[in-house]
Amino acid sequence: MKNVKAEIVAVGTELLLGQIANTNAQWISDELASIGMNVHHHAVVGDNLKRVENQFRVSQERSDVIIITGGLGPTEDDLTREAFQEITRTPIIEHKPSMDKIESFFEERKIAMTPNNRKQARVFAGSDVIENQTGMAPGMMISHEGRTWIFLPGVPREMKRMMRDSVLPYFKKQHGAGSVIKSVMLRFIGIGESTLEHELSDLIKQQTNPTIAPLAQNEGVAIRLTAKADSDDEAAAIINRAKKEILKRTGHYYYGDDDETLTEKVFNLMQKNNLTIGAAESLTGGQFTDKLTSVPGASKVCNGSIVCYDAKVKENVLRVSSDIIKQQGTVSEACALAMAENVRSLLDADIGISFTGVAGPESSEGQSPGTVFIAVHDQSGKRLAEKFNFQGDRQAIRRRTVLKGYELLFKLLN
Amino acid sequence: MKNVKAEIVAVGTELLLGQIANTNAQWISDELASIGMNVHHHAVVGDNLKRVENQFRVSQERSDVIIITGGLGPTEDDLTREAFQEITRTPIIEHKPSMDKIESFFEERKIAMTPNNRKQARVFAGSDVIENQTGMAPGMMISHEGRTWIFLPGVPREMKRMMRDSVLPYFKKQHGAGSVIKSVMLRFIGIGESTLEHELSDLIKQQTNPTIAPLAQNEGVAIRLTAKADSDDEAAAIINRAKKEILKRTGHYYYGDDDETLTEKVFNLMQKNNLTIGAAESLTGGQFTDKLTSVPGASKVCNGSIVCYDAKVKENVLRVSSDIIKQQGTVSEACALAMAENVRSLLDADIGISFTGVAGPESSEGQSPGTVFIAVHDQSGKRLAEKFNFQGDRQAIRRRTVLKGYELLFKLLN
């Protein structure tokens, strides 16, 4: 879409009161950037009919594509439809498939449907309705005086699903022949953003096609390669050449492309090798296993775990010897190793992994928050234990511990 | 500042590319709300002179106070000053104290100052200069045709310091005495947004002070009450009167105010009653326990859990009888009850809770995704088990199962 000017408008007073940040606009912008569309404006306006109307007028004036998030719900505060109708005179009709879905939702739950729920099934006449797979109010796409308007719910999960299933494919099709944009994310673990950038600095400086952008991620770092070409094949070839050169230098830290998570990578490596795992989780409280079981088909790999938050559970269920607990404490290499070994045999798994440490905010057993031991015990009798000092608050320490566990397994299995 | 309309404009292409979220706007909005100023718009515009000018014209037209973040740095991309000059013809001069500071910064570090750094000391003639305590470019406040313009750096640390030291005190002084705004969120579980709104529709229709806004949340729903008054006490009294009336009708579903989560509420109820809990988690894979252990001090309440993802673990570790597993399956009321009872005794807890079901995407044991049993077994011998049919994908089903577990505990303990 050459030189298309896109704009993202969020409707919702909670944003103007500072209760949440406009992460929807960030996410959509990132997606549009990856297919080469230019976002020129973000706007946020509250749940006030007159002001939403005025914002929509400004947007209609200056942008080719206007993406609206929010204001489609059942309450009287939800005014997006009304504002667009006010300035365009587009009739609003009830969308039967959406209404049927809403009614059956309430029927199945045996809850009386209140009348305001009907509102969520109302759509603009002549619009392309986007089905809501994860909620009630459908999205809509409609043209108005040369502009494309796209209406999406404000709930991030619903919005993202509609963007992925309907809106982004539509934009890609609009591209037409001739100009293809292809983007790939290369994902790395165990290397920092600045080191990665340093290793690739000459490539990054020379970049034109593909562009090479290092990005810090929640899990490790990533490099986004974006190629423009006349065909899919050509764009793929441009990306593959650059990818090869990058992995020649940093392949040691590379674990996957695009949406692949480190958890999925570890899952796939275990499945390929026919291995099962059991975890003993203390400070991580089940988070390691929660992540693993979020992968469909997890039962092939994950036997389960013992969350031994209480020292008594370490002793009575995991059978860590009371000598270790008394003399070295639960936050110790010896305890971590015993946990890994014993959970492996208790859960009859090929690999046992354990996490013990201090999440904070208080110190524990004289050790400061962030002190963490992770141990692994595998079917060949190999044992390893590492000590870490993680920074951050309680949630960050727990999150980093889990991520490090997956990093250790990745190194072990890769 | 009665009925002052404020607007926050961020200048920076990185926001439009989705590289960062506009958390500056969130932070500023939250601060302004706390002193009773109404923010009517957020806007984001890229580093492009023409577009920044146009955005500034729109803002000058519609808002009384315009706060700009970003675009004051040393590079050619930093265009905030130029855009404002272009539309207002305000002369720009060098601010000697700022220039001295920049020069001594480079001298102290024995780095040659590149010429573009002079740009950072340039300010509007006639503006109130806000010293930058933590960086280089100063901020500015200036009036233009009845509007107040405030220019701040985009670096959050620098922006926040200037807001706290200079801008917020200035606004409070403008206020004069009186006029306080106070906002409270009331949180509910087990009732839908539309039903809640229906129950309170007359109150919502009559609302003036406080305003009453229902909001869908990740965990249940919430109602935001916002009061304006001449004093803190008066605002609190207005909110309390409305809260009382709302809870008279819907108090059964109410669990807490403001940032309190349902997990924290359950944690607090258990702590108050000196109760401990152990969980047996199948489809939820540790997520229930992960949430509970995210609360600081979790060890007082949470003994641990058995994540029995594999049927063998249900049988061998949790000692669910093989008869139950063979005849009724692992996705059954009998299995859920046995899991809850056995995990309670195995982990020596007061309450045992269990989760078993089908997360999908595939069916399991002839049951379709979303079929879930949750059981609770408590110290008095009370047992309960409920069957649910949750909608959504694998992650949604697991998330809803965990939330429902907390809802059941809340009902049990409240």
UniProtKB/TrEMBL annotation, chains A, B:
Signal peptide: none annotated. Residues 7-173 form the MoaB/Mog domain. CDD domains: cinA. Pfam families: CinA, CinA_KH, MoCF_biosynth. Belongs to the CinA family. PANTHER family: NICOTINAMIDE-NUCLEOTIDE AMIDOHYDROLASE PNCC, NMN AMIDOHYDROLASE-LIKE PROTEIN YFAY. NCBIfam families: cinA_nterm (TIGR00200), molyb_syn (TIGR00177), PncC_domain (TIGR00199), PRK00549.1 (NF001813). This is Putative competence-damage inducible protein. It comes from Lentibacillus persicus.
